[in-house]
Amino acid sequence: MSNQSAHTPVSITTLAKRKEKGQKFACLTAYDALFAELISSSGIEVLLVGDSLGMVLQGHDSTLPVTIEEMVYHMQCVRRGNRGSLIMADLPFMSYASANQSLESAAALMRAGAHIVKLEGGAWLAESTRLLAERGIPVCTHMGLTPQSINRLGGFRVQGRNPDQASTMLEEAQLLEDSGASLLLLECVPVALAKAITEKLEIPVIGIGAGPDTDGQIMVLHDMLGITPSTIRTPKFVKNFLPDSNDGIRGAFIAYAAAVRSGAFPSAEHSFS
User: Fold this and answer.
1) H or E element, residue 72
2) Which of 51, 63, 184, 197 has the fewest C-beta atoms under 10 angstroms from its C-beta?
3) Cα 113 to Cα 9: distance, rounded to the nearest angstrom
4) Model pTM greater than 0.90?
């Protein structure tokens, strides 16, 4: 795909049509205007202003210290650089603990330029998801490994390998769609479970460490450029796309998008059984 600025900007409807047609789409995190422009002009459909900035930019060992004010700042930077991609923004830790807080936090990110907000959790998000959707704020729910719950989960572990846990996750994914979620992101779940959820839901499903069958794929910018901070263990689902490029960083983005659309990425080596 060429520069998206020459085409209709990507929307949630765009992604829904891709799912209907069986066409994969690519997503990447972005935290500033320069990379937002490079990524979006390389044809990547979704930019995520992720609270992962706490780890890859700020040097923390988790996403928990990131504040809503910091997310708004980075959202404003990404909006200025964006050239037609859909921009998604994370609601950071404890910024959506109540219904009113969810509305206030989401409104701040939408005013800063987000097109959709992302919340981590399962069934307990149903009320907030419904509340936000009813008020015109699109929601992406994030299930599986949820980094904001890392202390409760006991580390970065694959989720949904237990049959009961997998069944619950499938039910909760359907509940969140019924509550008005526009997208679902699955992180670190077995291939079979991700496939079952993707096939069951009508909304597009994005995967990271969730195998090749989801509708879209996402990675952290630094991971796919091979510059993961040394303090962070490189996950199994990461691939460095710089060696696949004949045009530096921009070429790496183009190679990543092409590999996602063709189904070449992720392969079995980047997935969990």
Assistant:
1) helix 68-81
2) 63
3) 14
4) yes
